[in-house]
Amino acid sequence: MSDKKNLLTYEGLKKLEDELQDLKVNRRQEVAQKIKEAREQGDLSENAEYDAAKDEQRDIESRIEEIEKILKNAEVIDEDEYEAGTVGFNTEVTVLDMERDEEVTYRIVGSTEANILQKKISNESPLGSALMRKKVGDVVTVEAPNGQFEYMIKGIKKI
Q1: Backbone angles phi and psi of 133, in degrees to 5
Q2: N or C: less crowded end of the chain, CB within 10 Å?
């Protein structure tokens, strides 16, 4: 069984590599120092600093493992694969929510980088997949648990 590819922009790949480097080089040493200092305080059974440092160490190691797994199956998307003037990977697309008569701009990224608070949606999300390879003026219909929604593409900008 092959693992699912993690589609990333070059920017997203670089960000993950930088975070991994920081965790391995800086954060591990910081936590090791905290653990050492807490051990020097004596009885570990009632040492809150020691427990907190061990929890932080566990979180760091977990995040390192998670990033390494993502990077192992990472594939940087060739953004030139998408025709100019169409929605593709790493493009900003402004859509008009036709029900609410409201414009919203999203950036299309892989599921690993998606973050709705930053207006980054996955190419695999219902809206993201409906928008892929569409042009300005196209209307897409998105199926959602609470009904169908229509969006008109108002603008496309390559990042």
Answers
A1: 65, 15
A2: N
**Tokens representing 63?**
């995040």
- Give me the phi and psi of 15, to 5 degrees please: -60, -45
128: tokens are 């993201």
CA–CA separation, 2 and 23 (whole Å): 28
Render each residue's pLDDT in the chain as its tens digit; 159 residues. Answer: 456 788 888 888 999 999 999 999 999 999 999 999 888 887 777 778 888 999 999 999 999 999 999 899 888 876 666 677 899 888 999 999 999 999 999 999 988 889 999 999 999 899 999 999 999 999 999 988 888 999 999 999 987
Strand ranges (DSSP E) for 14-90?
74-76
Structure-block tokens of residue 127 = 């809206």
Dist. CA 142–CA 149, nearest whole Å: 5
Q: Which residue has the tokens 């648990």?
A: 145
The first and second tokens of residue 18, run together, are 């930088």
23: DSSP letter: I
Element (H, E) at 105: strand 102-109
The CA distances from residue 137 to 36, 151, 154, in Å, are: 62, 10, 6
User: For residues 153 and 134, is the Cβ–Cβ distance under 8 A?
Assistant: yes
